[in-house]
Amino acid sequence: MGKAYLIPNGELSGVIFFPPTVRTFRPRVSRWRRLVRICFLLFALVVVWSSVLFAYAPAIMPQTVRAVVEVKPQVTGVLYDADNPLAIVSGKVVRQGEIVDGYLVASIRPDGVELVKAQTAI
Fold this sequence. Notes:
Number of helices: 1
Mean pLDDT: 79
Shape: rod-shaped
Helix content: 25-40%
Strand content: 25-35%
Number of domains: 2
Strand order of the largest sheet: 6-7-8-9
Oligomer: single chain
Low-confidence stretches: none
Number of strands: 9
Largest sheet: 4 strands, antiparallel
Order of helices and strands: EEHEEEEEEE
Distance between the termini: 90 Å
Structural class: alpha+beta
Radius of gyration: 40 Å
């Protein structure tokens, strides 16, 4: 039912009045249309979550790749001079004491380069 109102004055005083309830017309949704709506919502949910995952994947992936694949530097040349010895390591010209790919150039000799990482000489 609805709300009840008591009429205070006039001919109908003391009569309880129930105003008519207004029902809005809501068309019935077919099963197919409901199924299409559910599929669309699921598709939208998948698109949103995949975009979130792909947005955060670059921040996570490089750390994982670095832990699995370790890059070792390659010595491709030595430019030896007693005053200023140079070496070409991983395509970069370096001096003694510089760091290349996480390795310290410990010494440069005419016959090779000594690289040190975590107390291990290569």
